[in-house]
Amino acid sequence: MKELTVGKNDAGQRLDRFLSKAMPLLPPALLQKYIRIRRVKCNGARCQRDQRLRTGDVLQLYINDEFFEQPREDNLFLTLFQPKMDILYEDSNILLVDKRPGMVVHADETEKVNTLINHIQAYLYQKREWSPRQENAFAPALCNRIDRNTGGIVIAAKNAEALRILTAKIRDREITKKYLCVTLGRMDPPEGKIECFLLKDEGKKQVSVYRRPVPGGKSAVTLYRTLESRGELSLTEAELLTGRTHQIRASFAAAGHPLLGDGKYGRGEINRRYGETRQALYSCFLRFDFPTDAGALSYLRGRSFQTPRIPFVEKYFPDAAFS
């Protein structure tokens, strides 16, 4: 329990508005709930959210210590009273989340609070599976990333051992990931491999594609398979043998078949014609291959997971089957 004494500069304010400024990490809905269930008292008595404070009033607050801290990037998850995410699978070690297009996975210059990792941390905190005050350094973390406008499966580790194992498995390519995308035109041949080198421009947040090695460039290998074509659009499955920034988007564009809706590597006139503002790309399938020892995660060996629905597939290829 903490106590706050109201000074003359705060007198006359409504209780809830005063507390929202005193505890910026406390979500407004949770603040109202705490007042209602008497976890906030004024001078030892029950109080109302709209009552006016007076100089010298003493507020007794039966609220977790975390909410009294100052906002920082690593504790903004506390402001999410109702975390929202589509969980595909969960156990004591990992979470598989189907990230929707439009959400960033980590904070960036455009979004600090409504990020996938904040929703995951808020979810686990509210389930009492994780408490930052009881951990020396670990916080639930993402094992893979997906661009803001790409949807699909993201793996989150609930503990340090799971994070260590999954990081190694992803690095050693022991986890199969497949994507679905809508490409312009028809690949020739309809099934094959795209091999190239990608050079990242940090300033432009874009990559350039080269057919031969270049200084600073990284090799990129993508397997693809055309599942269906309708007019100028094709539904294409892509499997990453390397995990490079914008690998699928840049590789297909360089091959002459950019993704529908891609504003960075695609064709603006076609995107506008279809009314698409996000790249039609989805990380739809994941399999834990684990040909080598996986320690505490060995029970996942051979298990596969698939997203239940992909909006752009339903829109353009409603009869398509994929696995």
Provide keyphrases for this structure.
323 residues; alpha+beta; 4-stranded antiparallel sheet; 7 helices; 15 strands; 19% helix; 28% strand
N-to-C SSE string, H for helix and E for strand: EHHEEEEEHEEHEEEEEHHEEH
Count every beta strand, where a strand is a DSSP E run of 2 or more residues: 15
Shape: elongated
**Estimated share of beta-strand residues:** 25-35%
Estimated radius of gyration: 25 Å
Q: Helicity, in percent?
A: 10-25%
Return the average pLDDT rounded to an integer.
92
Helical stretch tally: 7
Low-confidence stretches: none
Ends: how far apart? 53 Å
Give a quick account of the main beta sheet: strands, pairing sense, barrel closure.
11 strands, mixed
Structural class: alpha+beta
Structure description:
Helix content is 19%, strand content 28%. Strands 5, 6, 7, 8, 9, 10, 11, 12, 13, 14 and 15 form an eleven-stranded mixed beta sheet that branches. It has helices at 15-22, 28-36, 116-126, 160-171, 247-254, 268-274, 311-316, and strands at residues 2-5, 40-42, 45-46, 58-61, 86-90, 94-99, 141-142, 151-157, 175-184, 191-201, 206-210, 218-230, 233-240, 281-288, 304-306. It is elongated. With 323 residues, the protein is an alpha+beta fold.
